[in-house]
Amino acid sequence: MTIWSIPLRGIRGKKPRNHLTDQIDHIMGKKRTYWKKEYIHDTRPIIDGNILGKIEIPYHPGMAIVHYEYKGEGFESKLTHKHSFQHMMPHLETIFSEIVIDDSYWKFPYMPDYPDHNDFEKYQTVVMQSTCLMTALKLIDYNRFFAPFSLKNSTLNDLENAEESSVEFILNHPFQIPMATFSKGRSKSRITSKEIEWVGNAMTTMNKLFFNDDFTTTMEAMSYYYGDLPVRAKMMLIWSAIEDLLRPKKSIRYGVKKRFAMILGKTDEERKELHDLVDSLYQKRNSATHGRKFAWVHGVEDIFENNELQLDLSTLIYSYQLLCDLFYQIVDNGRRYTDDELIRMDEEYEEKFPNKRSKS
Fold it and tell me: Which terminus of the chain has a smaller tally of CB atoms within 10 A, N or C?
């Protein structure tokens, strides 16, 4: 049996405090504002209005989201490598929950092959299952977190009581400070029990999808959106994933517009709006991909006064949201759209809106 922990770090708020900045602020006579207490629910979900210490994941025995708060403990002696704690420190004060995995449950009938796997294969399975859980949460708009590191042989809650030099620290994310924004109304801390049920089912679906097909571009785009990467790179990754999922023929721009409209639009009015939205976003995708100005900063300036930059950033946000909405539909359906289905979408769109073709 092995216990694993994948802490979830919140992405909002100001830089977490450390001893060096405390000393500098004291010398300069400054008082720094740290992470706000209300950000606790960026990684501690409220289920049906209830704040729970532990949330079991439906259909996935041994997996739960458990509340955690750092109280200033020094964990150096518990970790197998003496410098690991320094990598943990920038994150600890912004972590309010951890995914806890007890792999003693991963046996027949849930996961019959797992007990016979070697250590590397078991670690791969842990990464895959935790990634499926985090992705499913993001698809229902619970998305204000990323996972900076993992622990093997203990949870954060139990780390103080672990044996000396017994806990392995594994750095998951190469970026210390995450950077991600979301469209208005598409980020939340309150979840329903029905949504948690969907998350459990979605994890099962993703396990099947990832076993039978390659969704690497989608998973990388969703992951790197949270990283401290150039905006241009994020835009390119997102649209690479979109095109991989929609597989447009002939005119890529026209193909993605039609297929987005038919997949996500519920009424003809919504389909028209989606068509026009994707058209404007695709124009910015071309700027990012082909080296034209995108998220351009003119030297030292107030970026909030740069209207072109703000427009480019908003197109990045909406592009990411479209990718998530598209992948949600695929997961909810339990499979990719087939080529025949996508071609029928093209034909149905052209029948509904014959005049749109000449404008595309």
Answer: N
